[in-house]
Amino acid sequence: RKEVEQDPGPFNVPEGATVAFNCTYSNSASQSFFWYRQDCRKEPKLLMSVYSSGNEDGRFTAQLNRASQYISLLIRDSKLSDSATYLCVVNYDYKLSFGAGTTVTVRA
Amino acid sequence: NAGVTQTPKFRVLKTGQSMTLLCAQDMNHEYMYWYRQDPGMGLRLIHYSVGEGTTAKGEVPDGYNVSRLKKQNFLLGLESAAPSQTSVYFCASSREAGGGSPLHFGNGTRLTVT
């Protein structure tokens, strides 16, 4: 079983729509959680950390559900520039495990 | 401020050839990493370093070697390339370990082994 699993998508949404997707992790002792964004043929970049109480960064909202072992990312009012692959990253004991990514395509 | 710079950007090797990928960072980060990214899989850690002169094995170290003689540089070597090593390689650095600070990635090396 993979340590971090994501629905690969793609999620095709129109501009202005809301899109949400989850990531599940297998290690219940995981300590910290992140979303990275990766544009096509580019390097990953940190989008946001995910806190236990949930957190927002502009149009992006991240949630953590430790009981069910998943994290989620919601994008409101999608922009064309949000088209990317979103990588879920989970930390346990200083080891980071990456999901394979969820691809989002925002169309005009 | 260049951040993390990887060279080369692209390379094609024949089976059995060797090469070295260079990673340089100018952020004075202690931690450096080499990952590979393959379709349908998350980034997998090959080797990492927690400081100058140190290296350690990651999740998929076989067929690779690394060196960190200077704090700012982290080299990844393939002694005898195999087609299974066809991948996109990313170097990264961070100020803290384990997600305590963001990973800063280089822009990748696309390696094809024929």
Short description:
Chain A has strands at 4-6, 11-14, 19-25, 32-38, 44-50, 55-57, 60-65, 70-75, 84-92, 95-98, 102-107. Chain A is mostly beta strands.
Note down, in words, how this protein is organized.
The complex is a heterodimer of chains A (108) and B (114). By secondary structure, chain A is mainly β. Chain A is 0% helix and 57% strand. Chain A has strands at 4-6, 11-14, 19-25, 32-38, 44-50, 55-57, 60-65, 70-75, 84-92, 95-98, 102-107. Chain B is mainly beta. Helix content of chain B is 0%, strand content 47%. In chain B, the strands form 2 sheets. In chain B, strands 2, 4, 5, 6, 9, 10 and 11 form a 7-stranded mixed sheet that branches. Chain B has a 4-stranded antiparallel sheet with strand order 1-3-8-7, with no helix packed on it. In chain B, a hairpin with a 6-residue loop joins strand 5 (44-49) and strand 6. Chain B is globular, with a radius of gyration of 13 Å. The interface between A and B is medium-sized, with 26 and 17 residues.
